[in-house]
Amino acid sequence: MSSQDITARAPRTQRKLPSEVNILLVLIGIAVVFEILGWIFQGQSFLFSWNRLKIMILQVSVIGIIAVGVTQVIISGGIDLSSGSVVGAVAMVAMSFAQVSTYARAVYPGLTDLPMIVPLLIGLGCGAIVGLINGWLIAYTKIPPFIATLGTMVTVRGFAKWYTKGQPVSFPTEGFAWIGSGMMPVVIFILVAAIFHVAMKYTRYGKFTYAIGANAQAARVSGIDVERHLVKVYVIAAMLAALAGMVVAARGQTAQAGMGLAYELDAIAMAVIGGVSLNGGRGSILGTAIGMVIFGVIISGFTFLRLDAYYQEMIKGAIVVAAVVADVHRQNKRRKTS
Amino acid sequence: MVSARTAAAIDRVKAIIDREGVLSISGIRKEFPGVLALDDVQLRIRPGTVHALMGENGAGKSTLMKIIAGVYQPDAGEIRLRGQVVALRSPLDALEQGISMIHQELALMNWMTVAENIWIRREPKNRLGLIDHAKMAQMTADLFARLNIGLDPTVQVSELTVAQKQMVEIAKAVSHNSDVLIMDEPTSALTEREVDHLFAIIRDLRERGIGIVYITHKMNELFEIADEFTVFRDGKYVGTHNASDVTRDDIIRMMVGREITNMFPKVDCPIGDTILEVRNLTLPGVYHDVSFSLRRGEILGLAGLVGSKRSNVAEALFGVHPAESGEILIDGKPVTVANPAQAMAHGMAFLTEDRKETGCFLTLDCLENIQSALITRSHVRNGFVQQAEVNRLAEDMARTLRIKTPNLQETVENLSGGNQQKLLIARWLLTKPRILILDEPTRGIDVGAKSEIHRLITELAAQGVAVLMISSELPEVLGMSDRIMVMHEGHVSGFLNRDEADQVKIMSLAAK
Q: What positions does the domain ABC transporter occupy (chain B) (predicted)?
């Protein structure tokens, strides 16, 4: 190549085919397989049932809200195992500030019939505190994210059980119950996903998150305050888990300390299936959203085919491993060609 | 007792080896998706010689070495080892057939001892089938005595310096008693004295009849150690010559296929007022009392051997690892630089030494890599990056620096080293720095890209940017700098002006 044609062909900022297209193709493939199996084994359509699709998306959107937060954590090069426990703890705390006065055994008898915004803010505040602890541990004491969030996972679950000594908290106000009613979980998920899709793609917050995940040292030398940014990332992740916790509690009109058990793993699985690389620096909210739908299609597909729940769990695990294998394979391929 | 027939057979093989070389390859072709890495190349290594392999980055040297070491399989071609056609199916296979390779990236196990690393898979066992550590230590000591290496075999590898690890790698390769030894840039992390030691080892191995393949970017090494050399260009064989028959310029011409009339196009430009002054910068145990000043339009070269802590001083200036005491003055006013963001606020920019470790975001695209520093300070409104404006700036800069990429959406890991380096320079130029710190700006990139970067540095100086340039290549320091500061083990050992400096003066200050 001579130097003339280098100058002539100036690099341009043109759009390439987004990598999410591949994941979308996987989703379509899986849906088609279930559709065919449906006609063979059940004699009916899998996809063309509005009710089934509604239930399917409702089932996954609560964990989808968590997955959005977890996605930006994984893109930053970390992991968050505490989200399931945050769901349980925040469900308990928020619900205790959302009870009706007609219920005789409220947690705080003097604080009943509060407007919906009060428990909502308290819940988000609790999430933020857990996120601050996670972020501080990871950014400033430099312990691995896996260990830091494993610690908060256990501690926060313990707090949830201690909060009412294991008693469930029930009877929320109508206002609070509204956030979990009908299709609200799906609406909240779509809002959250849209906001963070824009944030990750077009704001400095998103650019910094990708940069830190791709190369934290280089990000630091570029003038990014890596530590402060990581704290923000973990605070946001925990606040989204808190929101999910309140949606779950509101939907069931009760909160229990064991709520959200293993949600963090499903959320991570959705992100990984959606093409978010566990090495950081790669992935998108859109990918995770598609990953979430794949997750939902598989679960409701198996139920539809009347596959035993035990098999479902085993297959779910295998799918997550397969998604990680695909990620590692993609990276090896890249390394070889470069 | 060797029978007459066997002796005759041995003689025949010896004759073949003398004629064809211990390792002789021909017609090798290797294609990667979208790239023809090697096209009909040949190479012949005679026993008891050092054969240097030369070529720009991307010429195919490393690919060929990986084929010889069994890492890659060729698509076509023939490999003859001691006169026999062989297939090298894996690195282990190549090793067992007598080919050892010392990789550019060190491949030692940090949490094991030196001896365990060297004899891994070949550990001496005692009667119970357990590893005989005493014997292993003895074997290592014998090996080190032979190579004149003064290291404790029982020490953990993680405690060694990079240079010491390199020595362990070499000892490990030698311990296999291979006929062919491949060294890929073995001196990149070594100090002058260690290089001398390495060359002594190489000469000893040559005496023993081993064929050594030596890859280097450093021209001086070629003339000091190599007997023969082969040049590749763009995956093709260019030629093989005796080192004694050619000059440095001949080799550069063969590598690039064109005349390089002026490798260092430094033009004199007016030098302005002092912009940066450093007084008694000290980080105990690392560097002490470093003082110097830098003026607008000046290029201050910073020379020194490995261990001179040049990069640490640069990191202190930019706030990556601040100094403990001392003063930094910009435009005559004392400033604090506790982190890179503060340094950037004072108009500094810092191109780090290690592109992969502290420079590039390899998984991200060119645009993200170019804009990362800019958007920490400007072009963001209400949290949103003003992408249209940034795109325009990035495209202009990419054009100015002649970054070769189909578009700015290309992932950076797909770019060559030279283009990655230009991308990082683009990142910093977008911040419009007044003080530019460059740490090894042309390390590991090909000759063409090198001279382009040199031209660019000169142009920046002409525009009034003050440049501090760290470089391990003396010709580069001499060719580019208005003034040269030399460091030795954390102390400034002297300054030289452009007209009085030469390699000998620099080295005598650097080595003391």
A: 23-259, 271-508
Helix/strand/coil for B268: coil
Are the beta carbons of B197 and B225 closer than 8 angstroms? no
Q: Annotate A259-309 with DSSP letters as a single string.
A: TTTTHHHHHHHHHHHTT--TTSS---HHHHHHHHHHHHHHHHHHHHTT--H
CATH number assigned to the domain comprising residue B214 = 3.40.50.300
Both B380 and B467 in one domain: the answer is no
User: What is the C-alpha end-to-end distance of chain A, expressed in Å?
Assistant: 19
Better-scored residue on pLDDT, B217 or A292 = A292
Domains with residue ranges and CATH for chain A: 21-27+49-337 (1.10.3470)
pLDDT at B235: 86
Interface test with A, best of B363, B384, B385, B387 (most A CBs within 10 A): B363
Q: Does B318 sit within 8 Å of A11, measured CB to CB?
A: no
Residue among B357, B402, B427 minimizing CB distance to A7: B402
Question: Mean pLDDT over residues B77-90, rounded?
Answer: 91
The reply to whether B247 and B144 lie within a common domain is yes
Chain B contact for A2, CB < 8 A?
no
Is B354 within a domain?
Answer: no
Q: Are residues B273 and B216 in the same domain?
A: no
The Cα-based distances of B264 to A133, B445, B451, B458 in angstroms read 54, 15, 7, 9
> Is A215 in CB contact (< 8 Å) with chain B?
yes
Report the domain count for chain B. Answer: 3
Predicted pLDDT at B32: 74
Query: SS3 of A120, please?
Result: helix
